[in-house]
Design brief:
Chain A: It is found in: Cell membrane. Chain A: It is a peripheral membrane protein. Chain A: GO terms for molecular function: ATP binding; ATP hydrolysis activity; ATPase-coupled polar amino acid-transporter activity. Chain A: Its main location: membrane. The complex is a heterodimer of chains A (289) and B (304). Chain A is 39% helix and 25% strand. With 289 residues, chain A is an alpha/beta fold. Chain A has 2 domains: 176 residues, 3-Layer(aba) Sandwich (Rossmann fold); 67 residues, no CATH class. In chain A, helix 3 crosses helix 4 and helix 5 packs parallel to helix 6. Chain A is globular and about 50 Å long. Chain B has 2 domains: 43 residues; 219 residues, MetI-like fold (Orthogonal Bundle), CATH 1.10.3720.10. In chain B, helix 8 packs across helix 10 and helix 9 packs antiparallel against helix 10. Chain B starts with a helix and ends with a helix. The chains are: A alpha/beta (289), B mainly alpha (304). Chains A and B meet through helix 2, strand 8, helix 3 and helix 5 of A and helix 9, helix 10 and helix 13 of B. The complex binds adenosine-5'-triphosphate and magnesium ion (MG). Adenosine-5'-triphosphate binds next to helix 1 of chain A.
Chain lengths: 289, 304
């Protein structure tokens, strides 16, 4: 595995009106690394991810993706703001998966996945469709290409959303609470897809409350509170022996909410080991309709 | 159905409830309708004249003109309306204010007045054109057709702009963000993702506007555009069959409105794609679906 720096955030700040939401975030993510971002509601996790994808613009500090400054271009001793087109080009390598899926409801599953490759790279439609089918197979939804998002379960929709992001061949994937809108029994199938993706070496930043997933998959857990990074480290240490009182407090609440015993939980038992298991269980159930 | 099932299960004869009120009101309504029909049938209307003029050349020509001006005005109205809506929603304060002013003016001035102003534009500007490119005499340019097109179309565009704006605002912000995060060019974000979804909200009120423009086109008689009503009037000035010809016009308007309603239904279905089966499983309401699945399985189990 290389140690190329994929993302570097330096002193990123952001406020909404009078409310400081990010108060100096420094974070470096290297290629192939899976970073789980945890922390209480309102701590600024989503805002940070949205800054990485330029859906928000930081007020202070800066972000670099693969050593390229986001949103600005150095020219001599000036810093020039990028055009929409240039921002779109920077976003091309970054995939984002949203809490509420945000699939395009008026397009079929296949069209959802082919839309970006067809529009952005002028990839011939036939080729884009072939790639899309491969991706749908990877997330266990090969037969759902002609369905509309509204006809799928939440778990299936989120897996389509992951396939849709992967269609632009990103080198960095951002996940903002990808399983929070799902019924508990559908969480496993989505986490299984993400786990496979991590095993294949994708660089990922995942905002999640799933302590089990974080412990098994993350290389590093970053704990945020009040717009700053309070503590970070490998999951084994951070989850079982957090040093900061606020981390302890938060973890106690998260594990309580999930109904499991404290940290070393049975959470993993609920998630299928591979995508294929999720798929067969899924099609067996939906095939009845 | 349910009652029959229950009765069958118990081996009894079902007796349905009687709806006396419904019967009484139905009888009264039918009697009133019959009275109206009789009045028209026996009144001083020569129905064979109505039948005769329904397909008279003069009338059909007027009908064609009405159809053409309605379609053209609607096309102009929708295109300008979308443009104004986009300006209205833009971050540019000047564009914003201009769009708001446009809507204020063209929605506020009565159509009849707008038609007359366009038709008489030559009184203000004897010649119009683009400096250096093209120039023409206003009287020649501002034909009855042009005056009607601009009058109806721009009035319509002000309403369309508001309808389109509402439709665009109704599309979830997450759709734009997802499209942006996929690096779609801004044109595609609007044209492929936002507008098609807004259309679902836009089409029903726009259908009403279409019908309204069709009927408003009858005002074009004041600028001597030869639409349906104007043609009918020319006929009855000569033969004095006033009410018969007005009935002919009414029949044609109703026919065209019916065709439009069918068209609207087809377009609504087109833009409803992906939405119609969604109702029970919208958004994170995946829960309902999951429970439905469980219920379905239970039923199957009990049948086995
Ligand atoms: N567009 C906005 N305008 C104003 N305030 C905002 C906006 N977006 C976020 N905020 C505020 O910023 C704060 C941080 O929000 P953010 O969504 O980043 O938190 P979070 O850590 O993702 O929380 P959660 O776990 O609830 O998703 C919150 O107080 C939120 O209300
Ligand atoms: Mg959030």
């Amino acid at each position: 595995m290389t140690t190329e720096t994929v993302l570097r955030a330096v002193g990123v700040t952001k406020r909404f009106g009078d409310l400081p939401v990010l108060r100096g975030i420094d974070l470096t993510v290297t290629a192939g690394e899976v970073v789980c971002l945890m922390g209480p509601s309102g701590s600024g996790k989503s805002t940070f991810l949205r800054c990485v994808n330029q859906l928000e613009r930081p007020d202070g500090g800066y972000l670099e993706v693969r050593s390229e400054l986001l949103g600005w271009k150095r020219r001599g001793d000036t810093l020039r703001e990028l055009s929409h087109r240039e921002i779109a080009r920077q976003r091309r390598g970054i995939g984002m998966v949203f809490q509420r899926f945000n699939l395009f409801p008026h397009l079929t599953v296949l069209q959802n996945v082919t839309e970006a490759p067809v529009r952005t790279r002028a990839l011939p439609r036939a080729e884009a469709e072939r790639t899309a089918r491969e991706l749908l197979e990877r997330v266990g939804l090969a037969e759902k290409g002609n369905a509309y998002p509204g006809q799928l379960s939440g778990g299936q929709q989120q897996r389509v959303a992951i396939a849709r992001s992967l269609a632009t061949r990103p080198f960095l994937m951002l996940f903002d609470e990808p399983t929070s809108a799902l019924d508990p029994e559908l969480v496993g199938e989505v986490l299984a897809v993400m786990r496979t993706l991590a095993e294949q070496g994708m660089t990922m930043i995942v905002v999640t409350h799933e302590a089990g997933f974080a412990r098994d998959v993350a290389d590093r857990i970053v704990f945020m509170d009040g717009g700053v990074i309070v503590e970070e480290g490998p999951p084994a240490r951070l989850l079982s022996a957090p040093s900061h009182p606020r981390t302890k407090d938060f973890l106690a609440r998260v594990t309580a909410a999930h109904g499991g015993p404290p940290v070393p939980s049975t959470e993993t038992a609920r998630t299928p080991d591979t995508v294929d298991t999720a798929d067969t269980a899924d099609t067996a159930e939906k095939g009845q309709r | 159905m349910y009652g029959n099932d229950a009765a069958a299960a118990l081996g009894l004869r079902p007796v349905r409830r009687r709806h006396w009120g419904r019967w009484a009101s139905a009888v009264i309504i039918v009697l009133l309708l019959a009275a109206v029909v009789r009045a028209f049938a026996t009144g001083a209307i020569e129905w064979d004249v109505v039948g005769e003029y329904l397909t008279a050349d003069m009338i059909l020509e007027g009908l064609a003109n009405t159809a053409v001006i309605t379609a053209a005005a609607m096309l102009l109205g929708v295109l300008v309306g979308i443009l104004i809506a986009v300006l209205r929603l833009s971050a540019n304060p000047v564009a914003n204010a201009v769009a708001a002013g446009y809507v204020w003016f063209f929605r506020g001035v009565p159509v009849l007045l707008q038609l007359l102003i366009w038709y008489n534009l030559a009184l203000v500007f004897p010649s119009i054109g683009v400096p250096g490119l093209w120039e023409g005499s206003t009287v020649e340019v501002m034909t009855p057709f042009m005056a009607t097109l601009l009058g109806l179309g721009l009035h319509q565009s002000a309403y369309t702009a508001e309808i389109v704006r509402g439709g665009i605002l109704a599309v979830d912000r997450g759709q734009t963000e997802a499209a942006l995060s996929l690096a779609l060019p801004s044109g595609a974000v609007f044209g492929r993702i936002v507008l098609p979804q807004a259309m679902r909200v836009i089409i029903p009120p726009l259908g009403n506007e279409f019908i309204s423009t069709l009927k408003t086109s009858s005002l074009a008689a004041v600028v001597t555009y030869g639409e349906l009503l104007q043609s009918a009037q020319l006929v009855y000035y000569r033969n004095n069959r006033v009410i018969e010809l007005l009935i002919v016009v009414a029949v044609w308007y109703l026919a065209v409105v019916s065709v439009l309603a069918i068209g609207q239904y087809a377009v609504e279905r087109r833009y409803g794609r992906g939405f119609t089966p969604t109702r029970d499983a919208s958004g994170p309401g995946v829960r309902g679906r999951a429970r439905g699945g469980v219920r379905a399985r239970k039923t199957m189990g009990s049948e086995a």
